[in-house]
Amino acid sequence: MNGIYERELTLGSEHVDCFRRLRTSALFELMQVVSMQHIGQLGAGWERTLDRGLLWVIARQHAVVERTPVYGERVVLRTWPGATMRLLFPRYCELSSGSGETLVRASAVWSLMDVATRKAAFPDEHGIEIAGVETGRELPCLTHLRTMETTDFFECTIPYSYVDLNGHLNNARCFDLVEDRLPTAQAGKMLREARVEYHGEAKPGAQLVAEWGEQNGKYYVNAMTDRPCFRMELTYAAERESGEA
Fold first, then answer.
1. CA-CA distance, 201 to 58, in Å (whole number)?
2. Mean pLDDT confidence for 47-62
3. Can you name the CATH fold of 5-240?
4. In terms of C-beta density within 10 A (0-12 exposed, 13-18 middle, 19 or more buried), how is residue 12 classed?
5. pTM greater than the 0.90 cutoff
6. Where would I find the beta strands (DSSP E) of 89-227?
């Protein structure tokens, strides 16, 4: 399809949890991978960015899950860019089954960061331009995450293995840190919606403190190191879902 990047794959053991369902972190990692592959095809890959002192980073993410695909299931990932808003690059993703059933709709807001200063970089100063595509299927990008009351907290040290090419905690690993500690995820209940804001970097070895609370099936997490790191709202299904397609 014109302006839309597509990748087909079969979910293997590296993608799923103990319930044979696609892990939340693997879902977001796959969307990051296909997004970067498409960005590269559009002429803004590592040769134009990383090799010139720029990093692609994600500021916000929003995903709605209709059904979680399972081990051995063939799925199709599609991604396309929205219209650039000065510093911000909206991007949209869809995950569907091999038969065409829409499983996940998602949106994200990307931006460029200067490697040396760790501050936002203006794309026009570096000749980075990506034309937007409109399909009518776009999930609105997250604009603001509502603050909720927190009642619990957990602490952890950012492990080296959770740090990515950008030198900080990878966006997808944030979901592992959180779901390792949420009873709902470990009980096998399916993620229905995720809203995330990323505010600052967490370097390897940093001490992260995350406050969290639950209201009517929505789990709110506010994580920080010596500065705000990320905020997250995760909604799960009321009942556990089978890991069979």
1. 11
2. 95
3. Thiol Ester Dehydrase; Chain A (3.10.129)
4. exposed
5. yes
6. 89-97, 102-114, 152-157, 189-198, 207-215, 218-224
